[in-house]
Specification:
27% of the residues lie in helices and 16% in strands. It has 483 residues and is an alpha+beta fold. Bound molecules: NADPH dihydro-nicotinamide-adenine-dinucleotide phosphate.
């Protein structure tokens, strides 16, 4: 047998040698234990703190590292360095997740999937925090906490409530598009490798001459769409609650990590005033006929994290993280998330969460943010601890300011329903589905409506009828069939 190397010494968190890791210190062999056994206290106290609070949404997730490689030249639209010359490669991290289930929930559940990408670029981190669907349930962030409450547990029964979900959806018809996707085949992917990712929101690009374009991001699976039916998923969950984590982890260990073709849709800035739908409404897509997909690169995952907690549970993505050449848009949901995501991380992970290795940019971050939890570094030469200063501290970069955002109108609480059609694009999707896909859609909806009061079902079916009478009829038949 080869000789084993001498193992490293075990220490306290302060680095002092740890004398005994099997026996606590006691007054006599039968106890009691001594208050001075600091090693025991440290060990128990650390165990109590091994969990951080789980994410309020997207709690159950998986993730891996990889690369983004440019295959199409879009430098006429953006000066973002990561979209430079063909062949340029940027390291990425992608975290996938379900939305509603808690940290221990099963993977194979019907739910939207999170698809959050961190690009470690030379000009800072760009986070594209999207989903596997191109749209979302609501278009105003004022409604977000209420919507999420309907996906979580009832305060009294502590059970998920189909009544709450359909009550909210039927009173918020802007959700119809996303609801139709959720109950279609794509609402239950076989794993994270077999689904598309979408930035969902409209963002903007700006180029060297400071022209702005609106942009949507698409990640098209190169591993093929694969979905479970409800029945298949039930038997998967019965045997394996971690089916998506296992599928992704194993594929990468086998050297068979997934990849996606990354595409953009581009809209010239002023065209946004003339589209027949609001291009900043996240309940809408931009039809491909109007804005064709332009291929820009390939995203590929090839490395599992070494430590799930350190690198995935603490991975913190926020749409507020953009880089020069990429900007925001008036999309109200995006504007809400710009605040809410970074705020969630400051609360959940800690004030200086972006100093953690998984969140840290590859270029040095130099800020004037001061103290607070998790201040790991001790910057030298700290005479420049305010700004402006005469001590050679970091200085602002005016060139990085995006072009002015054109805004029209008065500040007011505009009714988000005015001028917004909630049915046309759902109809286009419904008409893409063949007979068998529609039958599964009807069956999935009927199954999810079990126990919902008739008044709420009727209100929702009326929305389906406005999309297409066949949609409503199909759901009614499926409801009758299930009894
Ligand atoms: P296209 O026929 O050009 O594109 C249809 C799109 O629908 C494709 O991207 C396809 O993805 C996707 N798709 C197919 N089945 C489903 C499903 N069950 N759930 C979600 N997406 C699905 O049509 P249009 O661009 O004119 O859009 C028509 C409708 O397609 C829209 O109203 C919208 O509901 C849906 N859609 C449109 C997207 C867009 O960005 N324009 C994006 C995704 C959906 P794939 O190519 O991967 O098969």
């Amino acid at each position: 047998m080869p000789e084993k190397p001498v193992p490293p010494i075990l220490t306290t968190t302060a680095g002092s040698p740890w004398p005994d890791n099997q026996n606590s210190q006691s007054a006599g062999p039968r106890g009691p234990l001594l208050m001075q056994d600091y090693q025991l206290l440290e060990k128990l106290a650390h165990q109590n703190r091994e969990r951080i609070s789980e994410r309020v949404v997207h709690a159950k997730g998986s993730g891996a590292y990889g690369t983004f490689t440019v295959t199409g030249d879009i430098r006429s639209y953006t000066c973002a360095k990561l979209f430079g010359e063909i062949g340029r490669t940027t390291d990425i991290l992608i975290r996938f997740s379900t939305v509603a289930g808690e940290r221990g929930a099963a993977d194979a559940e019907r739910d939207v999937r999170g698809f959050a990408v961190k690009f470690y670029t030379e000009e800072g981190n760009w986070d594209l925090v999207g989903n596997n669907t191109p749209v979302f349930f609501i278009r105003d962030p004022m409604k977000f906490p209420d919507f999420i409450r309907t996906q979580k547990r009832h305060p009294r029964s502590n059970l998920r409530s189909a009544t709450a979900m359909w009550d909210f959806w039927s009173l918020s018809p802007e959700s119809l598009h996303q609801v139709t996707i959720l109950f279609s085949d794509r609402g239950l992917p076989q794993g994270y490798r077999h689904m598309n990712g979408y930035g969902s929101h409209t963002y903007s690009f700006w180029n060297e001459v400071r022209e702005r374009y609106w942009v949507k991001f698409h990640f098209k699976t190169l591993d093929g769409h694969r979905h479970w039916t409800n029945q298949e998923a039930a038997s998967v969950v019965a045997q394996d609650r971690e089916s998506a984590q296992r599928d992704l982890y194993d594929a990468i260990e086998r050297g068979n990590g997934p990849s996606w073709k990354v595409c953009v849709q581009i809209m010239p800035e002023l065209e946004a005033e003339h589209t027949r739908y609001n291009p900043f409404d996240v309940t809408k897509v931009w039809p491909h006929d109007d804005y064709p997909l332009i291929e820009v690169g390939i995203a590929r995952l090839n490395r599992n994290p070494d430590h799930y907690f350190a690198e995935i549970e603490q991975a913190s993505f926020s749409p507020s993280n953009i880089v020069p050449g990429i900007g925001f848009s008036p999309d109200k949901m995006l504007q809400g998330r710009i605040f809410a995501y970074a705020d969630a991380h400051r609360h959940r992970v800690g004030t200086h969460y972006e100093m953690l290795p998984v969140n840290r940019p590859i270029n040095p971050a130099r800020t004037y943010h001061a103290d607070g939890a998790m201040r790991f570094d001790a910057p030298r030469g700290m005479d420049a601890y305010y700004e402006p200063n005469s001590f050679n501290g970091p200085v602002e970069q005016k060139w990085a300011q995006e072009p002015p955002l054109r805004i029209s109108g008065d500040a007011a609480r505009y009714d988000h329903r005015d001028g917004n059609d909630d049915y046309i694009q759902v109809r286009a999707l419904f008409h893409l589905m063949n007979f068998a896909q529609r039958e599964r859609l009807f069956g999935n909806i009927a199954a999810a409506m079990r126990g919902v009061p008739a008044e709420i079902v009727d209100r929702q079916v009326a929305h389906f009828a406005r999309v297409d009478p066949d949609y409503a009829l199909g759901v009614l038949e499926a409801l009758a069939h299930q009894g």
